[in-house]
Amino acid sequence: MGESVTEKFLGFDIASIEPEEGAPAEGRLISGNPQFRTWNFEEAEGGLYAGVWESTPGKWRIEYDEWEFCHILAGVSVITEDGGEARTVKAGDRFVIRPGFKGSWEVIETTRKDYVIRL
């Protein structure tokens, strides 16, 4: 894309950068062997991040200290808050997870999402 530091419009073209590969943090895996790919397009001052994340099937514990907006692009996942209800999310769904959320994320079908995170 050839973006310069002065450009103020940033597109999310996942073919333009190599994804970071990862998996659930040690001790958080519940089942399966989920593998993550993350294309982080924006890292701004003040702890703001935006990009695309993808995971293969599996289940792990999640704990949010940050605020995150998610837009599911593909796949099916189930997000369950400790002591709360299980929510199935699929392509087209948008939601916010607020700081303090604790529970699990289970990918049923490989899931890809756009995200914006504010620390």
3D structure, described in words:
- The protein has 119 residues and is mainly beta.
- It has a single domain, classed as Jelly Rolls.
- The chain has no helices and nine strands.
- Strands 1, 2, 3, 4, 5, 6, 7, 8 and 9 form a nine-stranded antiparallel β-sheet that branches.
- The two termini are 28 Å apart.
- The mean pLDDT is 95.
Features:
nine-stranded antiparallel beta sheet, Cupin, Jelly Rolls, 9 strands, RmlC_Cupin_sf, 60% strand, UGlyAH_Cupin_dom
What's the structural blueprint in terms of helices and strands?
Layout: E1 20-22, E2 29-32, E3 36-44, E4 48-55, E5 58-63, E6 67-81, E7 86-90, E8 94-97, E9 102-118
Domain (S)-ureidoglycine aminohydrolase cupin: 43-115
Protein name: Cupin
Organism: Pseudaminobacter soli (ex Li et al. 2025)
Please tell me what the overall shape is.
globular
How many β-strand runs? Answer: 9
Query: At the third CATH level, what is the topology name?
Result: Jelly Rolls
Q: Note the beta-strand portion.
A: over 45%
CATH architecture: Sandwich
Domain (S)-ureidoglycine aminohydrolase cupin: 43-115
Protein name: Cupin
InterPro entries: RmlC-like_jellyroll, RmlC_Cupin_sf, UGlyAH_Cupin_dom
Pfam families: Cupin_3
Short characterization:
This protein has strands at residues 20-22, 29-32, 36-44, 48-55, 58-63, 67-81, 86-90, 94-97, 102-118. The chain is mostly beta strands. 14% of the residues are buried.
